[in-house]
Each structure stands twice: as structure tokens, then as C-alpha cells.
Amino acid sequence: MARQQKRHSSRSAAFLRKIGYPGTSDFGFLYDLPAGRKRSGSLEQSFLEFAVTSDYAEIAKDHCAPVCLTNLMLVLSRKGHPELLAGGNLNETFRRIHAMTGNGPVMTLRRYAYRYAAERGYRLHSRKVFDYEDVCRAIRDGQPVTLLLSDGLFDWHWVLVLGWADCETSDGPHHYLLIHDGWNRRAESYYDLAHKSLWVAARAYRVEEAEA
Q1: Fold classified for 2-207
Q2: Residue ranges per domain, the chain?
């Protein structure tokens, strides 16, 4: 599966328009993995209950980006950094992040993540993630990954990657990412890397520990 082996890089809207990339808003999400031998790994925080876009439909629109960032802060808060969750809850965290990002589309998250964390008294570190193997390394290192997908020129969606899965099926190996899709309360969706939706950009995050 050559697409899974190559390095993914950010594509601009102009490039997508040039190649005539179709959109269906499906994004290749699955809720059940195919039958076959499996190997997987995930963050222990993948079992949390997350914020979803419908929670804030009355105060925001096209807001998958601030929802993804809110859930990123939830995961990091449960890794020993509780003040990253403003007021100790998701709603207040979303409101503060949304005040920074505004409504979408939002094409990059890093500066908002850094700014919000700094206001909460933390310093974040992040790095670009380029392919499936790189995601697996980030998860093994305990780092959640934000991932921007495109299913067409006007179909963009941010998800939070919390795990990975290899499946050996009758037609060969397949690779999937365990994600919180922004729509369901729990992280029970998988992104199929063989799907035509485009991996635009991904970044792994961790909190920088204060020097003793």
C-alpha cells in the first residue's frame, strides 16, 4: 500500500482545486475493524468521554478545530497536568479555545494550542507527524496526535488520534488509526489509511516538564 508508506505533507486549497479532488464527507471512518489477526496500541486516555461538536452547535459553527483542541487538552490534563482543563471541565475549556480560534475552517492548531496552554501556565512541545509509523511512535511515547483530513475542496475535518491498529486480512495488511472523530462521545472510530480522504497535516503533542 504505497500511499501508507510515503510521507504526507500539507496541501493547500489551491492544490486540491488543481487536482479536482472529490469530496463525500465520509473521511473513511469505520466503527468495526475487519476480521483477521490484529495488533494494536492506544493511549490509556483513549477511554475518556470527549467533547463533541453537537455540544456547541448553538454557539459555534464549523468548529471541529476547537473541539479537537479541547479534547487534546483533556488528554494532556489526565497525564498529570490538570490545570489544562479550564474550570476543570470541557465546556469552559472549549469556550476559551473557541474565543481564540473563532469559527472554522481553521487550518492549523499549533499556535492556538501553545497560546491556550501558556495561559494555563504550561508550555507545550509538538512535532510534525508524517506517516503511519510516525503515529505509532508518537502513541508509544504517550503523545496524542491532531490530524487534519480532507475529503474534498470544502470538506475538512480535525480528529484526535489516540491509537493504531494493524489488521492481517485475506487481501493483505491494513493500517488504521483509532480516533476521536469529534461526533461521538467516545473514541470508537477508526480512520482507514487506504481511504481516499487526504492526510493534510498531523502533529504530536506533549507538555514540557519544568526543570527541577
Answers
A1: Cathepsin B; Chain A (3.90.70)
A2: 2-207
